[in-house]
Design brief:
By secondary structure, the chain is of the alpha+beta class. It is built from 5 helices and 9 strands. It has a single domain, classed as 3-Layer(aba) Sandwich (ECO RV Endonuclease, Chain A), CATH 3.40.600.
């Protein structure tokens, strides 16, 4: 396929794939199924309760000790919260493992029933109903089995300059999430202001040398 057709296909895909269910996306990119969290199932409910216990414990500790998270960017704050949340998870019989490589998901959990769950951890200073894009998925290379896929959101507020306090959390079952593909062609400042000038100079020199 030539470059023109590839460009056309990318633009068309962005138009068509505006609403895709997350389970469809995961299965198409990883080959593995996404299970929903069934609160009526005793094992799933146990999983939910242990995650909630760990989240509430972290929130309580932060309030009691006036723990604040320092960071210039929300992602930095989110990583610090995630690391402390993992410590709280280890107080339960869930076995969390951080997946260091970039991209979805952030961690995997093994429960006492031998089941694996993928968990994404996100910090946000926005309202829960804000329309700002905050979830991204590029491929399924970190997914190695059929599992439940959950996301825990941490609501944070800036109390002082670059110091953030944890105020709330939400646990979401990504089985019900719909995502959209946003295809775009981009360039950095270096591409715009440096590389273009270098290319222009090459063309100018080439023209002058053949004149």
């Amino acid at each position: 396929m030539d470059k023109a057709l590839l460009i056309q296909s990318a633009v068309k895909a962005s138009e068509v794939l505006r609403k895709v269910s997350f389970p469809e996306l995961v299965e198409a990119t990883s080959g593995y199924m996404v299970f929903f969290l069934d609160r009526a199932d005793s094992k799933d409910n146990e999983l939910y309760e242990k995650l909630a216990t760990a989240a509430n414990s972290l929130l309580k500790i932060c309030h009691k000790t006036r723990r604040r998270f320092q960071g210039n960017r929300i992602n930095e704050v989110g990583i610090a919260i995630e690391e402390e949340f993992v410590q709280e998870l280890r107080k339960t019989d869930l076995s969390p493992r951080l997946l260091i490589e970039k991209g979805y998901p952030d961690m995997e959990l093994d429960d006492r029933h031998g089941r694996k769950t993928y968990l994404e951890s996100k910090a946000t200073s926005k309202r829960w109903d804000d329309t700002f894009r905050s979830f991204y998925y590029s491929n399924g290379k970190k997914i190695t089995t059929n599992a439940r896929h959950l996301l825990i959101g941490w609501k944070i507020e800036e109390e002082n300059d670059k110091y953030w306090k944890l105020v709330d959390w939400k646990l979401v079952d990504l089985f019900y999430l719909n995502v959209g593909l946003k295809s775009e062609f981009n360039a950095s400042n270096k591409d715009i202001y440096i590389s273009t000038q270098q290319e222009e100079q090459k063309v100018t020199q080439s023209v002058l040398s053949t004149a």
